[in-house]
Amino acid sequence: MNITMLANNPAVIVAGIFLAFILLELACSSFRQSSGSKRDVLIEVVGSGILVAVTFPLVMWLSGKISSQAVPEMKDALAGIPWIAGFVLFLLLDDMTQYWWHRLTHRVPALYALHRAHHSAPYMSVRIVYRNNSFYYLLMPGIWLSGVLIYLGLAPVYYGYLILKMTVIFAAHSSIAWDDKLYRIRALRPLVWVLERTFSTPSTPSTHSAHHGLTAEDGVTHYKGNFGNLLFFWDVLFGTAKITRRRPPAYGIEHVSPISWKEELFWPIVRSRRTAPKVNANRKVARSISQGRG
Fold this sequence. Notes:
By secondary structure, the chain is mostly helical. It has helices spanning 3-7, 11-27, 38-70, 83-105, 109-119, 141-173, 180-184, 189-195, 206-211, 233-237, 261-266.
């Protein structure tokens, strides 16, 4: 990781927020998922460890290195721009590109194989936030572009941006349905209406729960949309939003045989004898948890 990033590293604060969500779920007896298995724990621990210890530092270092070789004269070129302008750049080059990357992984079979692990969990919890194939984040454009923006002098902006974004993502995946009470407060309804069309949360993590639902037949699940990470606004803008203020009765993926935890994490390096999962352009494929495949 480059020196600028080290000097403005929000990792400790993000880790503290992550721990706070874990403690909250533990206090509410919803962190240890009865529908989960040792396989799920392996995917989550190994997948998260690879991202934090290898992928993220590597991409940050490489993006800075490539930038310094390609445009050495641009080092810290944007350091003097207003903070809000830098924040908007991260929204466009990180959050919006992540929306399109996430959407693309649900459309292209080979890319869905990199994202399948995230949806194979039969539950919602903060523990699944980093649950993805080891190559999923390595290929995510937003992380590379964030590294470039940091090279251009926007590390201080990234500090606050990343803390906000990860707090929103943790809350969106949490098993605590804390947003339900907001819908019942009449005075907050106008504010909630605006917020739920802007952010993945703080007003309505139920929208992201719908993205993780098992089957669209339940009337809530929307795995062909609700792709937003920090901003749900991208779904509203690009026509993939579905807001029901309800949560699916079951989570997971259907219509595909289970694969090993190693294949979910390390495909295409590790793969079974059968071909990679085939994904129809308009439906989500995976295992049926109703048949005990978790």
